[in-house]
Amino acid sequence: MNPAEYLDHLDRGSLREGLPASELRPCFAADVMSVEREVGMSLPEQYVDFLCQVGVGDEFGGLARWFHLDLTRPGNIIAHSEALAAEQLRLMEETGVPAQHFPKGILFFYDSHDGVLYGFLPASDSSYKPAVFLWDCEEFVLEEAADNFFTFLSYLCEEISAPMPTLVAAR
Question: What pTM was estimated for this model as a whole?
Answer without folding.
Answer: 0.86
